[in-house]
Amino acid sequence: MKNILILGGTRFVGRNIVEKLMELGKYNITLFNRGESSPDLFPNIRIIHGDRKKINDIKRISSMDWDIVIDVSGYWAGAFEQQIALQRGTIGRYIYISTSSHYKFDKLNPHLIKEYEDLVPCTQEQKNSGNPAFYNQNKAECERILQKQKGLDYIILRPGLIIGKYDYTDRLYYWFHKLKNQNDILICNNGENVLSYTNVLDLADLVIQSIEIEHSCEVYNASSFITSLKNIMDIASKKLGIEVALISASSKFLDKNNVKQWTDLPLWLDGDFLTTDNSKIIADYNFTFRNVDETIEQLLRYYSKIRKWEEPKTEPSPIDTLKELELIQKVKATYNKV
Question: What is the rounded distance in angstroms from the CA atom of residue 32 to the CA atom of residue 57?
């Protein structure tokens, strides 16, 4: 029975992975985390509490041998480099959950990005800053550090925007909650910009396949599908039996009114550049991803039965409803002038 160490494991992606592993019942699972998120979630699993930024805490896991390490919380390259050095020679395979937002995007020439394309650089200052603004730079640097390790087998998975149960960011739930509670919803560019999404259950399945798969030292894009916010809203509204008006504003209008991409209007990017090619992992893993319709069906069931359509706690905080309504009135006024 393989010994698996999961760095994280109790919040969103890690929680889904742990649940899948527990269902299989054929691995010895240990979690290493700070014990801040749902510390009593898995009472039958060994949990070692510690901070991966602290050497003495990392020594608690570096003295043990692990067949597999699954890293869902590797955000800061400085700490990651220190941890990898301390664990040298104790790990069979390292499965690193990365991102696809760390590519050097060609915004003027959007295309399906392949794994070999360039990642953003990371300066020494960014590497040790702990500033969330440098998230992409640090994820890219963590990958580079991992790939430099001699004799360490690894699988790097680059998901798109991860959505699914336990998603604490509520970025997609923000929009579904509005479907349930508003007649008019502010959206940009008719909601037609597309990006890559990853169903968290797909990601968990890929991680489990990565434990046993014969491929080694590989990097994979791991997006489930590419779609637009408008398509998501259309599918969800039909499933909910709701008709709403999507009030479209231009990116120029929103910029003029100090509405920021991605944060003030969750999931809005002014372009189609965050799209990745998942053909490599489909071929190597013989994998079938869940489609957008199935994913939305799962999510609506979760929001209804578990979340019970409670108020979203979207992170970071979007524009408030009053400002949204004010902007909707401005947009409608321009419609009337035409």
Answer: 10
Beta strands at 153-158 and 225-228: parallel, antiparallel or unpaired: unpaired
Average pLDDT value for residue range 115-135: 95
Residue 28 in any domain: the answer is yes
pTM of the predicted model over 0.85: yes
Is the separation of the CB atoms in 16 and 164 below 8 Å? yes
Are residues 38 and 136 located together in one domain of the fold? Answer: yes
In a domain, 132, yes or no: yes
Burial of 89 (0-12, 13-18, 19+ CB in 10 A): exposed
Q: Is residue 235 part of a domain?
A: yes
What is the helix (H) or strand (E) element at residue 163, kind and residue range? strand 161-163
Q: Which residues are 213's β-sheet partners? A: none
Domain that holds residue 67: 2-158
How far from chain centre, in Å, is Cα 218? 20
Do you find a cis peptide bond into 43, omega within 30 degrees of 0? no
Compute how many other C-beta atoms are within 10 angstroms of the C-beta atom of residue 100.
24
Give yes or no: residues 179 and 298 share one domain.
yes
pLDDT in tens, 251-297: 999 999 999 999 999 999 999 999 999 999 999 999 999 999 999 99
